[in-house]
Specification:
Layout: E1 8-18, E2 26-31, E3 52-55, H1 65-69, E4 75-77, E5 86-88, H2 90-93, H3 100-104, E6 110-113, E7 115-118, H4 119-133, E8 138-143, H5 150-162, E9 166-171, H6 178-181, E10 189-193, H7 226-238, E11 242-249, H8 257-270, E12 274-279, H9 285-291, H10 305-317, E13 321-324
Parallel strand pairs: 2-8, 8-9, 9-10, 10-11, 11-12, 12-13
Antiparallel strand pairs: 1-2, 1-7, 3-6, 4-5
The protein binds iron/sulfur cluster (SF4) (2 copies).
One iron/sulfur cluster (SF4) is lined by residues 60-66, 83, 104-105, 107, 109-110.
């Protein structure tokens, strides 16, 4: 019998030595592609499923080599200069297989975010990192949404789990249940993101400007919450490992007392009792420039300590252990 063929998948980064995404020291694998597209995402280069050009105009010498190299005609420049400022047509780039723009760029102004990789190639890197983890470390799949590439996530988790590597995943919940099912036996920890308890089908808000050049942006995230809550309840019930909820705290969107109480009630209903509140930060701002996306939440204030303490005490009143930011026991 021949060996089972393992999936290949797309990732956009591997980071060693993380101390905040599971127990011990960990290697983080960032999966490409997410179906939720939250407006505050600190990894916008992880949203599209295909590799994409990342363009840093401050490094660009405007020599136009990439314009000539792109046989798809995806690069244009604004009027007024030799090449002016370059614009990449993201829809065309999503279908590209050559990425010749990055190959010819000598200044490093354009590079490709994301690449395809096999399980064995990825495992070789993980195995190399393993010696640096010390006791209790492992891998954490994040992204993007790992379970938007279910076969790849499954094969990687199983490969590592079978090699006695501790496995953790961070998921936004916005995938079909079948995408999780096969992988659950190979996961030790799950971080499950809850964005809001707002019961509307779409997470709409009125405050955001329309972006005529960007995707049809419906609000703070792209999706309804019914599937997310259903997956959260089912994982809490059927997954025997450690499950921690995560709440990205976005002022004006989900930080009001009503939403915090609803979130706490929901967590209690699942039988789990841990939440990690992640206050909004702006560390991903530069990446929005690189990807050409609009950073809608760029002016949003970062939550203050008093507000965070208040939220922590609200969760505590429900018997839930609340960890703020990186102040976690893991
Ligand atoms: S990624 Fe491909 S289609 Fe897009 S600009 Fe580069 S060469 Fe052209
Ligand atoms: S090849 Fe590089 S330096 Fe030249 S115009 Fe394109 S992005 Fe700018």
């Amino acid at each position: 019998m021949g060996q089972t063929k393992l999936a290949r998948g797309h990732i956009f980064d591997i980071q060693g030595f993380s101390l905040h995404d599971g127990p011990g020291c960990r290697s983080l694998i960032f999966f490409k592609g997410c179906t939720l597209e939250c407006a505050w995402c600190s990894n916008p280069e992880g949203i599209s499923f295909a590799p994409e050009p990342l363009y840093l105009d401050s490094k660009c010498t405007l020599d136009g080599l990439c314009v000539d190299a792109c046989s798809h005609g995806a690069i244009t420049c604004s009027p007024g200069g030799a090449y002016g400022r370059l614009t990449f047509d993201r829809e065309i780039c999503a279908r590209c297989s050559t990425y010749s723009c990055a190959k010819v760029c000598c200044s490093g102004a354009v590079r490709i975010g994301g690449y395809e990789i096999s399980i064995e190639e990825l495992y070789a890197t993980i195995n190399r990192d393993r010696q640096f983890w010390g006791a209790g470390g492992g891998i954490t799949l994040t992204g993007g949404e790992p379970f938007a590439q279910p076969e790849f996530a499954h094969d990687l988790l199983k490969r590592c789990f079978d090699a006695y590597i501790h496995t953790a995943v961070e998921t936004c919940g916005n995938v079909r249940w079948e995408n999780y099912e096969k992988s659950l036996p190979y996961i030790d920890w799950i971080f499950f993101d809850l964005k809001t308890m707002n019961g509307s089908e779409k997470l709409q808000t009125d405050g955001l400007p329309a972006d005529p050049t960007g995707p049809p942006f419906p609000g703070f995230t792209r999706s309804s919450i019914s599937q997310i809550l259903s997956n959260a309840s089912r994982i809490a019930n059927e997954f025997p490992g450690h499950m921690v909820f995560r709440l990205p705290l976005i002022p004006g969107f989900n930080d009001d007392a009503g939403n915090i109480h609803e979130t706490a009630r929901f967590i209690r209903s699942t039988g789990r009792n841990e939440v990690n509140v992640l206050p909004l930060h702006h560390l991903g701002r530069e990446k929005y420039r690189l990807t050409g996306k609009t950073y809608y939440t760029g002016d949003f204030k970062i939550p203050g300590k008093d507000h965070l303490d208040e939220i922590a005490s609200q969760f505590t009143s429900y018997g839930i252990h609340c960890y703020i930011g990186s102040e976690t026991p893991f």
